[in-house]
Amino acid sequence: xxxxxxxxxxxxxxxxxxxxxxxxxxxxxxxxxxxxxxxxxxxxxxxxxxxxxxxxxxxxxxxxxxxxxxxxxxxxxxxxxxxxxxxxxxxxxxxxxxxxxxxxxxxxxxxxxxxxxxxxxxxxxxxxxxxxxxxxxxxxxxxxxxxxxxxxxxxxxxxxxxxx
Length: 164
Fold this sequence. Notes:
Shape: globular
Radius of gyration: 15 Å
CATH topology: Beta-Lactamase
Helix content: 25-40%
Number of strands: 6
Number of helices: 4
CATH superfamily: GAF domain
Strand order of the largest sheet: 3-2-1-6-5-4
Distance between the termini: 32 Å
């Protein structure tokens, strides 16, 4: 990231917030706010966190956490559904340039054209994810992926730190 670029400036801001965070939840709220407000193509930014084990007959669920953007009907997503479920199940970042061409996409907004979902890990296990939607097709390039993966990794480290 070249110094002075939007990516470098946002990363500096995220680092500052990380140092000052009083709790994981505070850090998550501040992170989604900065990403949503400062990255022009990030129209919806939010965390989904893996719920504790549910009844054996039900799939594990991702529950909506801190977010910025329009309200979503998807406040809980089964691990076996959607791009969010796929990222959490595989533990891999998923970038979709055109959501209309991906059968896994759970439509939240007709304006969404592309999406990136990055897992959050604590001690090597997926505990949630950072999900970003854009109203622009192919909005997420390599710099975006690097930035979003960095933010997700900091949340995992915060969770480890505050969990003891």
